[in-house]
C-alpha cells in the first residue's frame, strides 16, 4: 500500500526544507575547502612538506569517498534528517579540533572527522530533492544544489582568508566551527524526510549489505554516473581545495589577493555555466554523457596551453583555464541525473553514494600524486618549488582525464543497451528530448 501523502510536492514546504539542507551543504563545502587558502600557513604551522600537506586533504577525501557506500545504505534506512544531523556534529567537532591542533597527527585526525561528516551531507540533500520535488523540477534543483553549495568555496577563498589574517589560525577556525551549532537546531526543527506519512526506508541487515551494493553497482547506469563524476569533478576539486592557490602564488607568481579573487571568480563562473548546462541537459537527455565529455575536452585544451607555455602563461590564459576547470563541478552534477534514469527510488541513496565516490577518488589520487611529484622534483619544501616543478606535477591530471573519458564512453554504450532491453521506448523518449526517470519497479543489477 502506498504511503499517505501529507505535504505538497514541489511547493513552499519543499523549498524551505531544501534551503535548510542546502545551508548545511554550503557549510560542508566551506569546511572541505578551508585548507585551500590555509595550505601555505598550515605548512609553516606544522613544518611539513608538500606530500604531508597533501595528506590533510587526501585523508579527508579518503574518508569521504570510503564512507559513501555505507552512508548511502544508512541514508536509505534512516533518511536525510538523521544523516544531516550526524554530519553536522562530526564536522563541527572536527573543525574545532583543527583550530586547536598543535601537532600534525592531531590536525590530520581532525580533518578526517571533517571528511566523515562531509560524507553524509551531499547525498542526503540529493535524496531530499528526489522525494520533495516533481520530476520536471529535479534536474534543475539538483544542478542548483551543486552550484549553490559552492558558495562555501567562495567563503573559504575570501572571508576565511581575511579571518586567518585578522584573527589567526585558532580563533578563525573556532569561529567557523560554531556555525554548525546553529544549523543543528534549524535542521532538527525544519527538515522532514518525506512528504509522505511513512517514508519507504529500506531496512538492510549487515549480511545483506554486500549483495545490496553488488546489485546497485551491477547496473551500468550506476557505473556510467560514477565515471562521469570521476572525469569531470576532480580537476576543479584539486585546484580549489589544495593545489590551485600554491600553483598561482608560488608557481605563477600571482599575489595572494589575486589568487583568492580568481578562486572566488571560478565559483561564480561555475554558477553561470551550471545554469546553462542544466538547461542543455534538460533539453538533450540522450546526450548527457557527451556533454560531460565535451566539458572535459574544454578543460584539457587550456590546461595544455598553460603547461606548455614557455615560462609563466599570460594572466588571461590562466583565467580561461581556471574557468574551464570550474565548469567541471556543474558537469559532475549530471552524473546524479544519469543515476535517476537507471535507479529505483528506494536504491537512490546507495546509487548516489557510489556515483559520488568517483570524483573524490580521482581527486584524492591526483592530490597525492601532485604532492609526490613536487617532493621528487624539489625536496626543500614549499618555498623551493619552481614553476617547472608545478607544471610537471599538474600534468598528472592527464592520466585521470584519459581513463575517465574511456570509461564514460564504454558505459554509455552499455547503459543504452540496458535501457533499451529493460525499458523499451526509453531511448526514443530521451532522443525526443523527454526526460526518463526510473519507474521504480524491481531491481536491475546485472
UniProtKB/TrEMBL annotation:
Q: Does the keyword Transferase apply?
A: no
Question: Which CDD domains does this entry report, sorted A to Z?
Answer: MFS
Which residues does the UniProt record annotate as the domain Major facilitator superfamily (MFS) profile?
17-413
Q: Which UniProt keywords apply?
A: Membrane, Transmembrane, Transmembrane helix
Which domain of life does the UniProt lineage start with? Bacteria
Membrane topology term reads: Multi-pass membrane protein
Q: Name one Pfam family in it.
A: MFS_1
Chain segments annotated as transmembrane: 15-41, 53-75, 82-101, 113-135, 147-165, 171-191, 224-245, 257-278, 290-310, 316-339, 351-372, 392-411
Its localization reads:
Cell membrane
This chain belongs to the protein called: MFS transporter
Amino acid at each position: 500500500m502506498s504511503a499517505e501523502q501529507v505535504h505538497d510536492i514541489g511547493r513552499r514546504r519543499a523549498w524551505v526544507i531544501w534551503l535548510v539542507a542546502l545551508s548545511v551543504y554550503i557549510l560542508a563545502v566551506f569546511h572541505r575547502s578551508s585548507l585551500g587558502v590555509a595550505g601555505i600557513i598550515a605548512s609553516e604551522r606544522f613544518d611539513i612538506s608538500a606530500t604531508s600537506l597533501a595528506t590533510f586533504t587526501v585523508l579527508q577525501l579518503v574518508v569521504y569517498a570510503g564512507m559513501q557506500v555505507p552512508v548511502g545504505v544508512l541514508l536509505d534506512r534512516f533518511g536525510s534528517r538523521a544523516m544531516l544531523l550526524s554530519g553536522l556534529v562530526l564536522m563541527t567537532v572536527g573543525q574545532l579540533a583543527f583550530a586547536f591542533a598543535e601537532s600534525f597527527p592531531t590536525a590530520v585526525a581532525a580533518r578526517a572527522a571533517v571528511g566523515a561528516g562531509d560524507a553524509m551531507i551531499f547525498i542526503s540533500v540529493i535524496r531530499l530533492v528526489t522525494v520533495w520535488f516533481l520530476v520536471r523540477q529535479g534536474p534543475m534543483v539538483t544542478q542548483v544544489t551543486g552550484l549553490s553549495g559552492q558558495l562555501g568555496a567562495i567563503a573559504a577563498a575570501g572571508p576565511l582568508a581575511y579571518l586567518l589574517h585578522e584573527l589567526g589560525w585558532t580563533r578563525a577556525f573556532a569561529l567557523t566551527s560554531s556555525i554548525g551549532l546553529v544549523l543543528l537546531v534549524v535542521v532538527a526543527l525544519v527538515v522532514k524526510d518525506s512528504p509522505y506519512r511513512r517514508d519507504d526506508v529500506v531496512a538492510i541487515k549487515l549480511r545483506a549489505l554486500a549483495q545490496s551494493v553488488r546489485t546497485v553497482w551491477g547496473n551500468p547506469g550506476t557505473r556510467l554516473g560514477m565515471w562521469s563524476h570521476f572525469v569531470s569533478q576532480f580537476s576543479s576539486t584539486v585546484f580549489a581545495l589544495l593545489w590551485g592557490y600554491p600553483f598561482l602564488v608560488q608557481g605563477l607568481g600571482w599575489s595572494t589577493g589575486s589568487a583568492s579573487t580568481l578562486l572566488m571568480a571560478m565559483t561564480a563562473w561555475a554558477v553561470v555555466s551550471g545554469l546553462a548546462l542544466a538547461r542543455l541537459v534538460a533539453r538533450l537527455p540522450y546526450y548527457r554523457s557527451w556533454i560531460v565529455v565535451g566539458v572535459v575536452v574544454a578543460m584539457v585544451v587550456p590546461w595544455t596551453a598553460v603547461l606548455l607555455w614557455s615560462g609563466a602563461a599570460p594572466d588571461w590564459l590562466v583565467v580561461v583555464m581556471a574557468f574551464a576547470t570550474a565548469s567541471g563541478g556543474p558537469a559532475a552534477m549530471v552524473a546524479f541525473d544519469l543515476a535517476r534514469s537507471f535507479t529505483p527510488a528506494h536504491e537512490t541513496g546507495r546509487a548516489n553514494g557510489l556515483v559520488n565516490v568517483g570524483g573524490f577518488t580521482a581527486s584524492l589520487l591526483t592530490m597525492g600524486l601532485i604532492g609526490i611529484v613536487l617532493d621528487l622534483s624539489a625536496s626543500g619544501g614549499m618555498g623551493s618549488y619552481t614553476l617547472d616543478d608545478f607544471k610537471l606535477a599538474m600534468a598528472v591530471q592527464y592520466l585521470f582525464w584519459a581513463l575517465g573519458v574511456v570509461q564514460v564512453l564504454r558505459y554509455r554504450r552499455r547503459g543504452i543497451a540496458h535501457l533499451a532491453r529493460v525499458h523499451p521506448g526509453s531511448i526514443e523518449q530521451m532522443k525526443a528530448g523527454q526526460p526518463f526517470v526510473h519507474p521504480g519497479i524491481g531491481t536491475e543489477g546485472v
